[in-house]
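Give me structure tokens for this 256-residue protein.
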Amino acid sequence: MNRIMEFLGRRKVWASPYVVVMAVFVVIPLLLLGWYSFVDDEGFTLKYFEKFFSSSDSLNTFVYSIGIAMITTLICILIGYPAAYFMASRQFSTPKVMALLFILPMWINLLLRTLATVALFDFLHLPLDEGALVFGMVYDFLPFMIYPIYNTLQKMDSSLIDAAKDLGAKPARVFFDVVLPLSMPGVYSGILMVFMPTISTFAISELLTMNNVKLFGSIIQENINVGLINYGSALSLILLVIIGLTSFLGGEDDTK
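Here you go.
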């Protein structure tokens, strides 16, 4: 009995299931992605990467996807930061109803929320175009911008704000010199949580534009569906590397 308790008391034992899950669902898929990107029936090759850089359609779609993701992220910041600031403000009672309203859509599957947005645009007789795409993106990913900022603002040391006020700083200067710089880690987390999914999504664009607007995720999906697994893997790897570099460089700047 003592041996069993001693065995169960080891941290490695409890960490084993997580290691297995990470290996099966993260490490192995990444290895397969790299394998199919660089290896085909002819052996090692870089032709799929060359195909991407020589294809104007793929490059234009990639640049366009970055643009849509940047617009979506910017709108989420402009809407999400004031909402998070109000929710975390100590001048008001915590608006729990407001927080609940932002949480409620997350209880519903993203695909169902997108279909509801399509129905809304159809009811209002609005066109399903780029405007609908950006609207749907903001609607789906706005909570992922609000809550990182809200958590950062809520944990902020209020004595720093009080000290700035005691030194004669006006509210605007308190916000720009104290609150905003200290909340940037939350803003950066929100940017990552919004920008990354929007640049690679395909279901939202297909539904909200009737497949008339293609994002980079749609190109990847189409190539894999028609059996071009190697090229689809190469495109996925390019996107993964760019997102990883962005996260790494942003994390380095954030720590400095």
